[in-house]
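INTERNAL AUDIT FORM
Audit reference: QA-55
Scope: verify that the stored structure record matches its stored sequence.
Auditor: D.O.
Record contents follow.
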Amino acid sequence: MSLYKSTFPAILLIESDPQMSEFFSRMISNCGYEVLTISSEDEFSSLNEDEIGIIHACIINELQDYDEFFKTYEYAFRSHNIKKAPIILITSGDEDLEPSVVSKTFHISRKVNFNFSELTEKIHDAILL
């Protein structure tokens, strides 16, 4: 986990592949965002109030259990009286997502000509929400 104390708005990146994590982190930070990374959704529950408080959006490249993560995520923000940061979900595009998952996320499919500018737009849209 590479979290550190900051006062700047940050993007939380959940990515298990170290190379992808480095790639996404570098690209997002080049857009002017601070990036906090964890390698799995299980690590999210170990974040403290200060770390949760600076998260303005969460980017997830893969999840094991959508419903469980959404419950944990929403509870963490609610329990600290912090406005929940939007989730940007990147998927391979091959899976059928439940409508409840789609309704709770900004969704990007890598199957449909994924490019980084689309991710940047989703970050801006999510933060402006």
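Auditor finding: record pair retrieved intact. The first strand starts at residue 10 and ends at 14.
Action required: none
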